[in-house]
Design brief:
The protein is of the alpha/beta class. 38% of the residues lie in helices and 13% in strands. The chain has three domains: 49 residues; 291 residues, no CATH class; 60 residues, 2-Layer Sandwich (Endo-n-acetylneuraminidase fold). The strands form four sheets. The chain has a three-stranded mixed sheet, with no helix packed on it. The N and C termini lie far apart (65 Å).
Length: 404
């Protein structure tokens, strides 16, 4: 190295000692700098890996017609018309972009599903401290719901399950509506019919939607640690909740409005039903043991064949429909820009409720302000032939309670 090239005269013993000490210090400094660089890189990699798999959620913000496709006559068109605007391109991984190109028309279905997930999340958590806030400044998509996804808490579990379910639902419906070129109605239901009904019509293609969601949503999950398994489990739980709520829908045929025979098909549930079920699972989510070795001993074969151990040994292992987590949630009372938590200051609360929307819980014991406001709302609505509803605008006075 540098020190090896220094020539020292034997007569200069003092200079020789000083130079050797200098070389020792230089080598130590170089070693410390290289170690710090390695640790910094590994720490950064670990920090960036916590919210993995959620990058594509940003398509909900970039998902405008001029960004995605297409032909103004038809919402979904051929691959030749498909264009990924740079912002959209940045939210998707290479495998996801390949899936989009292989399935023309699917991109808008994914964007629709992502927006549907935002709407449903806000509805389900509208009265809680964490009310599913989203960022309007998302560029690369990872932190659409804030950095709360970096924590392996119940809220992250719900978000992963809900977004996975939304893609499954939106793609399955888009297939049956003819908006995706690589799929159509599900015609598997052509088996034995009932006494007064027969299979027919166009069933929503849950089989294609389920498989596509697996391939698209789960492609961002890497490794074999507990967070990897938590995300995969919750993604799968969301899809299963859509699949298990498929229902039979029928239409009557016969003379003069009679129901001589019925034609039936399988229909997706309303997404609100899926959201309600996932919210119930959020309330009873299973905390799992943060021990990779114990969880890696799977059963069966395949990507999803792992067994999650409950944190409390007296509890049963989580089922395929349960949501799982292994870190405690923040209290969400105070604003935390680092995690994207808005806090509850200024939120409207219910002073007569003892539930999560009550002023005592929602305001975190800080108290609340009460004031009377005039609120605009529609009133005195009448139906006019044909075919519209005409309403007046009223401004009644209401008592509003706001967290301090």
């Amino acid at each position: 190295g540098v020190c090896g090239k220094i020539i020292v005269k034997p007569s200069s013993q003092l200079n020789r000692n000083l130079i050797m000490k200098f070389c020792d210090l230089l080598l130590i400094a170089l070693f410390l700098l290289s170690t710090a660089g390695i640790e910094g890189k590994s720490t950064k990699k670990k920090r960036l890996g916590r919210g993995r798999g959620s990058k594509w959620w940003g398509i909900a913000r970039a998902g405008e017609p001029n960004n995605l496709l297409l032909n103004s006559i038809r919402m979904y068109h051929s691959i030749s018309d498909q264009y990924l605007e740079p912002t959209v391109h940045a939210t998707l991984r290479r495998k996801q972009r390949k899936l989009v190109r292989q399935n023309p028309g699917v991109l808008l279905a994914i964007a629709k599903g992502a927006k549907q997930a935002i709407h449903e999340c806000r509805h389900q958590f509208r009265n809680r401290r964490w009310n599913c806030p989203t960022s309007d400044k998302v560029l690369r998509g990872k932190y659409l719901f804030g950095k709360i996804v970096d924590k392996a808490c119940r809220e992250s579990a719900f978000l992963y399950a809900l977004t996975s379910a939304a893609v499954t639902h939106a793609v399955s419906r888009a297939c049956s509506e003819g908006f995706i070129e690589s799929c159509s109605c599900d015609y598997r239901h052509r088996g034995p019919s009932g006494v007064d009904w027969e299979w027919g019509g166009c069933s929503d293609n849950i089989d294609f939607g389920f498989k596509f969601s697996r391939a698209f949503v789960d492609t961002g999950e890497k490794g074999r640690d507990l967070r990897y398994m938590m995300n995969l489990h919750n993604n799968e739980a969301g899809r299963i909740h859509v699949q298990s709520e498929m229902r039979q829908e029928c239409k009557c045929h016969g003379m003069s409005g009679s129901c001589t025979v019925k034609t039936c098909w399988m229909r997706l549930p309303y997404f609100r039903v899926v959201g309600d079920n996932l919210k119930d699972k959020f309330n009873g989510a299973s905390r799992i043991l943060p021990n990779n070795a114990g969880n890696l001993r799977g059963y069966g074969k395949g990507k999803y064949s792992f067994k999650l151990k409950p944190y409390n040994p007296e509890h049963k292992p989580p089922t395929s429909k349960d949501l799982v987590y292994f870190e405690h949630s923040p209290n969400f009372c105070a604003k935390d820009n680092k995690l994207g938590i808005m806090g509850t200051r200024g939120r409207t609360c219910n002073d007569s409720s003892i539930d999560v929307d009550g002023c005592e819980l929602l305001c975190c014991g800080r108290g609340y302000r009460t004031e009377v406001r005039e609120v605009e709302e529609r009133c005195n609505c009448t139906f006019e032939w044909c075919c519209r509803v005409k309403c007046e605008t009223c401004t009644p006075k209401k008592t509003i309670h706001t967290c301090l």
